[in-house]
Amino acid sequence: ILKIKENDKNHQNNEIDGVKIDLEKEWVQLGKSNTETIIRIYCESESEVNANHLAKKIMQDSKEVVSASLT
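and the corresponding structure tokens:
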């Protein structure tokens, strides 16, 4: 999760309950589950389509970080 934060230094973010990245008109928050082996992604945008696009981008970024750490 912190690697995603490092990759997005151009936006304001905080680390309360995971990592929240504030973009111009939307935000995304990543947080690890304490009960499951998953990372939860929450986002808010002007439309559901934009929110889904943002969530998919963060999921892809997360997969890339994990893949890079395994090599």
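(Above: one complete record from the training split.) DSSP finds two helices and four strands in the chain.
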